[in-house]
Amino acid sequence: MTRKRRADRRLDLIAAAHRAIIRHGTEGVHLNHVAEEAGLTSGAVLYHYPNLSELLVDAHHAGMERFYEQRLKRISGMRDPAEKLVVTIRSGLPHGPDDPDVRLLNELGGAAARNRMYALLLTTLYDRQVSMYQSVLETGSALGTFTLSGDSLLIARNLVALEDAYGYRITARHPVIGPQEAAELILTYARTATNNPLKTSH
């Protein structure tokens, strides 16, 4: 088996673990669940991941990439801080109540109080998201696009907190809060915090 094929197999197992966690919960998932999702024997899973805990951590980390690495990449080529902020806000919310990446984060959050590694993953993600927002805010302030109502760090923390709160409401199937409504609610705060209309095409 080539090194590339081994790497591909590990990616397949990470995806299978992702599905198994959503189906059985972070603390309820077992090796046989991952094997079933991957269409492999338990031994085949252990060949690539001798430690199930390591596989579960990798699955959680991969699910988090969308909420930092991919967002950062998406806005990196944008020049307008206002556009960057709007896109950052919209891209941090679930696509809908069954969004698998957000459901994975919810599972992780439920287990974090009892697992230090999961708590560290969530804390790291939160801090990186705050830093991402803070960078957009401070760039906008330096360019004169934003007139911040307060400290950039506090505004950034509030934006991430709103993102988390409304994201949970979406996955909990709140009858009047979907992705568009949640984005507009967060943007309402962001407009006040930046003194910018943050116009959107929607």
Total helical segments: 10
Q: Specify the CATH architecture of the largest domain.
A: Orthogonal Bundle
| Helix content percent band | over 70%
- Could you describe the largest sheet, including whether it forms a barrel? none
CATH topology of the largest domain: Tetracycline Repressor, domain 2
- The total count of strands amounts to 0
The overall pLDDT, averaged over residues, is 92
What percent strand? under 5%
Full CATH superfamily name of the largest domain: Tetracycline Repressor, domain 2
Domain HTH tetR-type: 7-67
Keywords: DNA-binding, Transcription, Transcription regulation
GO molecular function: DNA-binding transcription factor activity; transcription cis-regulatory region binding
InterPro entries: Homeodomain-like_sf, HTH-type_TetR-like_transc_reg, HTH_TetR
